[in-house]
């Protein structure tokens, strides 16, 4: 970390609090649990997710509208239509929304509709994109590159910070290794190390880390036990029908069960799981 400056802890106890919305923060005592589908598919899908999550200890929604797909023949996302869906469910549920930005040309539009802009693994070292995100008045969720070292990860955050945006959240989402049994290998050591090296909030994505829904909940709990500031987890009203990442999607009930199971682990490591009381859902159950 020789060249990192702004991302480093100036003082051993210093931690940055990032404001996700008026009522939701990450990096303090409260955990940030983000849930939602890999891809925004329809208004009905997102309303089903939002209405269920608004009644759970979940503080934000996720959903991609610009999707970095391995194949150009796979669904690429709803784009602007998807952003409007996210904005509508955000308005009705009171839950802030997170979505991925893949190009500089998308920044202004996404920042109009979403609360947090995600930089996906494939763009962790898209330095021009990182620099451009420095002037955005929204927090950035920066995911670790597919095979990025911690030094490369921290330096990618440094790009955003040095370009003027101090609201950066790091996300460990698994790294490539030799074993194809899991999609990636969740690097919990990196979570502990990043919390020691930087003052930035660190959240964990156990969905992309494992690629298998039956592994997600236990790793999510392990991440909180290791000191992660939160989680971002994929879930879907009909997991098997997800247009992308179906194999790792949790059902909505499994997602709620996972979120609720975190409370005692959070308490054991001096953290708390914000209740839904402060968020005041305005959606009725569908
Ligand atoms: C995603 O969050 O849907 C995604 C594509 O994640 P990653 O960039 O970690 O692969
Ligand atoms: Mn996904």
From TrEMBL:
- E.C. no: 2.5.1.54
Q: What class of enzyme is it?
A: transferase
Gene Ontology BP annotations: aromatic amino acid family biosynthetic process
**Keywords (A to Z) from UniProt:** Transferase
Q: Which Pfam families match?
A: DAHP_synth_1
Q: Which InterPro entries match?
A: Aldolase_TIM, Class-I_DAHP_synthase, DAHP1/KDSA, DAHP_syn_2
Gene Ontology MF terms in the entry:
3-deoxy-7-phosphoheptulonate synthase activity; aldehyde-lyase activity
Q: Which residues form the DAHP synthetase I/KDSA domain?
A: 21-261
Alphabetical list of NCBIfam families matching this protein: DAHP_synth_Bsub, PRK08673.1, PRK12595.1
What name does this protein carry? Answer: 3-deoxy-7-phosphoheptulonate synthase
Q: Which organism is it from?
A: Pegethrix bostrychoides GSE-TBD4-15B
Lineage summary: Bacteria, Bacillati, Cyanobacteriota, Cyanophyceae, Oculatellales
